[in-house]
Amino acid sequence: MAQQRSAADEAQPPAEIVVTGSFLRSRNNDANPVQTVTAEAISKTSATNIGDYLQRLPSIGSTASNNTRANSGAGLNCADIRNLGQARVLVLVDGKRQVQTMAPGLMCVDLNQIPVGQIASVEILKDGGSELYGADAVSGVINLKLRHDIDDGNLTFRSGVTSRGDNGTLMVSGYKGFNFDEGRGNITVFGQYRAQEGIYQRDRAFSRLASSNNPAPGGSYVFGSGLTDRTRVDTSGLNLISNNDGTFSRYTTADNYNFGKDQMITGRTRDLSLSFDAHYDLSDAATFYASGSYAHREFHNNSGGVGVQGSGVTTSTLPSTLILPANNPYNIWGRNVNLYKRFADLGDHPLDNTINSLQGMAGFKGNILGDWNYDASATYATSKSKLVTGNNVNYRHLLQQLGVRQLDPSSSSSAVVYDPTVCTSQAGCVLVNPFLPWSGAAADYIAIDTTDRSKYEMVDLNLRVNNDRLFSMPYAGGGDVGIAFGVEHRWEHGRYTPDSRVVNGDVAGISTAATSGGFSVTEAYGEVRVPFLENVTFARDLSVDLQGRWSHYSTSGSNENWKVGANWAPVRDIRFRGTYGTSYRQPSIFELYGGSTLSLVSAIDPCAQAATYGASAATVAATCANNGVNTATFTSAYSGQLPTLSGGNSDLRPESGRTFTLGTVLTPHWIPNLSFSVEYWNYKISNTIGTLPTQYILDQCYTGANTSSCSYVSPRSSSGQLTQIAARYQNLGTVKARGIDFDLKYSIDLTSSDRITLDNTLQWQMAYRQQNRPNGPWLDYTGDVLYSSGFGYPDVKDYATVTWTHNNFGITYMLNYTSSLNYNNGTRELTAATNQYYKTGSVVSHDIQVELNLDRIKFQAGVTNLFDRQPPYIPTGVFNTAGGLYGAQMVGRYMWIQAGVNF
Questions:
Q1: Nearest residue to 403 via CA among 342, 327, 316
Q2: What's the CA gap between 865 and 889, in Å, rounded?
Q3: Which is nearest to 756 in space by CA: 768, 747, 764?
Q4: Which CATH number fits the domain that encloses residue 70?
Q5: What letter would DSSP give residue 789?
Q6: Which residues 6+ apart lie within 8 Å of 857 measured at CB?
Q7: How far apart are CA 67 and CA 446, in angstroms?
Q8: Helix (H, G, I), strand (E, B), or coil: what is residue 813?
Q9: Looking at the domain assignment, is residue 92 inside a domain?
Q10: Which of 197, 413, 558, 851 has CA atoms 20 to 30 A from the CA of 467?
Q11: Domain TonB-dependent receptor plug: where (predicted)?
Q12: Cα separation, 318 vs 301, whole angstroms
């Protein structure tokens, strides 16, 4: 179980160690709020990667896991602290930076690539960290500390499956360490293979029927997608749908396509990780150390059939709207009509992502003179990925099948006519009746698999010098002043190369461009710890810690960050501590240089529901009329999803932050093995980088609340449909978050053979407020879930464990609690008076684990989500719940066994 590091029992002074948040050795009693997770705690859960375990902790936000990322083959597992975003947390391994993995629109350190069996402990610094570790440490730092100096071996097998027989998991891991040259050197090798099957939405009741919530007052849920798997026809106000037999019916939302039957909740994974760790003591002045790791990951996901209504590529010269010409023999209306279709005829829409990561580090450390020590290292790392998306629609071939010929091939808005020779002149082309199912040959002609590739590289050079005892304070009761300083130079470069057929517009509904860019940074940093008093009356410990870092980026220039920490223990039973500091985040390569991508995002066209806008209904109707839309007769072709263009912005400024923490730790000596800590935290992040929600942009534009938002909305098509909404990265405004952490740890020996251990971590989020644009209104998301994205900000999250051990047998009970959440459409909370679905209930989940130690063999078994608690209903348009918050509930009851042998 996670425990508060500084709340350790002080009856026996602990050894001095270096803890995350400082480069100086201490007795675990500094001012930084650091939470520690042990390898033993991780092993008691069903987690087969560290990301899944961290998601249990209250301080880890709702965006923690991306193995359930919809409509993406990414399969990355990213971390988030305090719900402040994946980009604002820095992940280290043994204090060193790790290479990020790129996926379309996403970058992070993929926690899947680090074998869980290699981790000795995890330290989570929850008050920034930019002043010591550099950019990205805004919400905090997650430092994975690995096993070292191993002189034995281990082989472990694990298997698991849900009570429904899916999500089967197999993991085999092992390590072997060797000492040599009379213990002066050591080398340890690690390996892990993990295979996990996926879960389809159709196999869970809560996600079987895909739906989304209408954000307007009075709105209820909207089932499925208006891009149906039968051809839909827009004949200037009359919406019809083919019955697949040549006849037609009026389109209603009951005809919508249920993509829940095709999409996966969790993808299928295959992971292989290999690594080594070595060191050799050349002398007291120099120890050579080196490590290397290789990770291979295969991730498979499945999405719904591709929806087609036009090119979707603004630079393409192909028709922007899919039109059936008036003279087509299957056009019974005698005029051009718009067609909309989701091509389930092509079969599954698979996404397969293969990631290969390689990282190597070498360095020297040792003693220079007296108490002066140094550590110099060099790291090179690279991560490559290949994303293959199957059964996309070749738009050029589709036009040929329909006999569509442009009178002006150089213009996407050109008039079109029916000409069968555009198909008959092409080998393999089959003319089709769009109101009947596609034949096998016809489907094969338009199906196209695309391949996107990405690569990220990092070089990091680091030199650090420290002296834990520079000098003693010149008076009785004073402590030893410590100092650390260093320099670092880092170079990072990323490249994303989409399939050339996507770029030139041959693939329907997908718009993207290549991304390539990088930066270099040179930095200097330092830390000074001043222990004013030690072991005197009313000052068992009184110290101040000063930290600072100067950085110069090739992209954004210079930046300075600092932090002040104070620590006072009047007696050994109580300690007060606090920190105040600054942080910053450099825009990522995707944010700076990202190519344009068009995708369908959950949102509803205001012109399709103008009457639901209450006092603003007349303004919405007028705005629609100005755009050529009659709200009385208009029907959107995109029920629940709208085309949104995203991309990078080279004019972005770095984010900046300020963090304040204040807490106390109680370790009463009259109650042995009891510790209790309370920590208040407060974040303010300015110049936040992000994108505005599609629905927010539309509502601001059409209600007149912010007419400048209309500049993000492209002109409508000839039939009045929205063509695209621009949601590029911008410096938006400010985020403020504050709350209190409560941590309790207690253990008691019942007998000489029996011991009870209680551990509880609770986070109370008192406020989460955000500005979506500079000087814009403050939006309060406290206790809300943004159902358009599934991100949640619960008031209370709690994780508790109780363990009973009897000799070599143990049993552990684990409880997870998440408080209820109100639905929020991005600008306001929904209520029972205005919406059919407006809030969730609280969720309590129970796990149990047993273990038996027999000398060299250890058996474990457990059940996660013991009572098969289902996640609350949240109509996100994807899973009908929030995957990051309710991962265990989405999977359902999961049973696992494990056996390990030491040798």
A1: 327
A2: 7
A3: 747
A4: 2.40.170.20
A5: T
A6: 899, 900, 901, 902
A7: 30
A8: strand
A9: yes
A10: 558
A11: 31-141
A12: 30
Question: What is the total count of domains within the chain?
Answer: 1
Query: Is 625 part of a structural domain of the chain?
Result: no
- With respect to residue 153, please indicate whether it lies within any of the assigned structural domains: yes
CB-CB neighbours of 250 under 10 Å:
9
Do the strands 3-4 and 34-38 form a parallel or antiparallel pair, or are they unpaired?
A: antiparallel
Burial class of 40 by CB neighbour count within 10 A (0 to 12, 13 to 18, 19+): exposed
**pTM value?**
0.88
Q: Domain containing 858: what range? A: 3-201+267-301+353-389+453-592+651-691+727-902
Contact 261, 202 (CB under 8 A): yes
Residue 715 is encoded by which pair of tokens? 């002109």
Instruction: Look at strands 372-393 and 404-406 and give their pairing.
Output: unpaired
Determine the Cα–Cα distance for residues 467 and 454; give it in Å rounded to an integer.
42
What tokens does 370 get?
């007296």
Closest CA to 141 of 107, 100, 93: 93
Separation of alpha carbons 301 and 75, rounded Å: 8
Going by the DSSP 8-state scheme, the letter that residue 345 receives in this structure is: G
pLDDT along the chain (903 residues), means of 10: 41 61 79 92 93 92 48 73 92 94 82 90 93 93 94 96 97 96 95 95 86 49 64 78 89 81 90 96 95 96 85 75 93 90 88 95 95 97 96 95 95 91 96 94 96 96 96 94 97 94 85 88 97 94 96 93 96 96 94 80 88 92 95 81 84 94 96 96 95 88 89 90 89 94 97 96 96 83 84 94 97 97 82 77 97 96 97 78 87 97 95
Residue 834, number of CB atoms within 10 A of its CB: 16
Task: Quote the crossing angle between the two packed helices 617-626 and 694-702, to the nearest 10°.
Answer: 90
Contact 837, 875 (CB under 8 A): yes
Collapsed DSSP state (helix, strand, coil) of residue 344:
helix
641 in a domain, yes or no? Answer: no
- Tokens encoding 641: 């999803």
| Upper half-sphere CA count for residue 41 (Cβ side, 13 Å) | 26
**Residue for token digits 């391949």?**
451
Residue 397 — φ and ψ, nearest 5°?
Answer: -70, -35
> Which tokens in the block code for residue 684?
């303010």
The secondary structure of residue 638, as a DSSP letter, is -
Burial of 370 (0-12, 13-18, 19+ CB in 10 A): exposed
Q: Find the helix or strand (DSSP H, E) in which 397 lies.
A: helix 395-401
Q: Which of 822, 818, 841, 834 has its CA nearest to residue 784?
A: 822
471 vs 120: CA distance, rounded Å: 33
Report the relative pairing of strands 140-146 and 89-93 from DSSP bridges. Answer: parallel
Are the CB atoms for 785 and 872 separated by under 8 Å? Answer: no
DSSP assignment of 819-856 = ---EEE-SSSB--TTT-S--B---EEEEEEEEEEEETT
